[in-house]
Design brief:
Elements: H1 5-21, H2 35-44, E1 49-54, H3 60-67, E2 73-77, H4 95-101, H5 115-133, E3 138-142, H6 150-159, E4 164-169, H7 172-186, H8 193-204, H9 207-210, H10 219-244, E5 248-252, H11 253-258, H12 260-271, H13 278-289, H14 294-300, H15 316-319, H16 322-338
Parallel strand pairs: 1-3, 1-4, 2-3, 4-5
């Protein structure tokens, strides 16, 4: 038996929501935060916020490590507020929470839906909590957005219309090579039966793969990975520029490797940090030499020792077969060329 009319109404609303939208909240976006609400929140959480997006294995972690060398900039990783379900907006999508937030008898909210304010406050608290403890003034998070592509930008804009995005691009061929090798090492349980078979062959006898006689990919897998890379790059740039304009910045992983000081100094300026001193530049050089996960990977998966060291470019040239090159060029050739990569090699 239902005890109250309110409880009956809540259940009716929940049923209608599931009927109309399903039980998945990923496509139901929040109303954007208002200017007055934004002013109120920033009076409590004043630090400028930025988010690093990029396809998986495109250098987001390296970029975050380098940016936080600056004494004014902090960047952590994998908050995934907008980039991996369940998203931060799931906190206010429970039917009972929605009912509480919209309850007319509430005086604190003046009859308004403060869902977005609540979420922004939660995100700001999580971000600023650590940066303040470190004495830093500009704070960000890096979370690869390749699961959500452009939707992550749209979702972010509802809560952070005043934020900034740094989007890092890496040659898609190197990105998918790095991604599959990461799966071989860290996530073999996620591989299909065919991919596990390739992994076993690679570990048992890697030479044919380094001679480009055998492929690490099935044709279907490589097509799927190439399509996802193109979608991630094209959607993120289009929506990032549309929503954020001059507060959207693109950088290539390869440019960071080739001329790190110039690229990182440009991004610090983009974020509003003060010009770096010689001491900061020296610290940046030290950080560039650090490769925290490289030795572990090489020990756990010895065939990887034959690859170029992490941070070097063009690993795809050692591992892509002619078939792989043709497939990737067919799907992603235009996108590669648009961002300064030679489409075939």
């Amino acid at each position: 038996m239902l005890k109250t009319r309110d409880e009956l109404w809540r259940r009716v609303k929940r049923s209608l929501r599931v009927l109309l939208f399903g039980d998945d909240v990923r496509h139901r976006l929040l109303a954007p935060i208002s200017a007055s609400e934004l002013d109120q929140i920033k009076s409590i959480f004043p630090q400028p916020k930025f988010f690093i997006f990029g396809h998986a294995r495109s250098g987001t972690t390296l970029l975050a490590r380098l940016l936080r060398v600056h004494p004014e900039v902090h960047c952590n990783w994998q908050a995934h507020f907008f980039t991996r379900p369940p998203f931060i907006n799931s906190l206010v999508r429970d039917a009972d929470v929605e009912e509480w937030l919209g309850r007319r008898s509430n005086r604190w909210n003046q009859g308004k839906d403060y869902s977005t304010v609540l979420l922004r406050s939660a995100c700001d608290f999580m971000l600023e909590r650590e940066s303040r403890a470190l004495g830093k003034e500009i704070v960000g998070d890096k979370s690869p957005n390749n699961l959500e592509h452009g939707e992550a930008v749209t979702r972010m804009y509802s809560i952070y219309p005043d934020g900034s995005i740094i989007f890092i691009i890496r040659d898609g061929r190197d990105a998918v090579i790095s991604h599959v090798l990461q799966d071989f090492l860290d996530h073999p349980d996620r591989l299909s039966a065919t991919e596990r078979k390739v992994r076993r062959r690679f570990l048992r006898d890697p030479e044919p793969y380094f001679k480009r006689e055998r492929s690490l990919f099935t044709a279907a897998t490589l097509r799927d990975r190439a399509q996802h890379w193109v979608k991630n790059v094209s959607e993120t740039i289009e929506l990032g520029q549309r929503y954020y304009g001059h507060r959207f910045h693109c950088v290539r992983f390869e440019d960071i490797v080739i001329r790190p000081y110039e690229e990182i100094e440009t991004i610090w300026k983009f974020l509003g940090a003060s010009p770096p001193t010689d001491e900061i530049k020296d610290l940046l050089g030290v950080e560039l030499k650090e490769k925290p996960d490289e030795e572990r990977r090489l020990k756990q998966l010895p065939p990887l020792a034959n690859l170029k060291r992490k941070g070097n470019l063009g690993a795809w040239k050692e591992l892509f077969t002619d078939r792989d090159i043709a497939i990737f060029h067919e799907i992603a050739g235009e996108t590669l060329a648009n961002h300064g990569y030679i489409a075939a090699g």
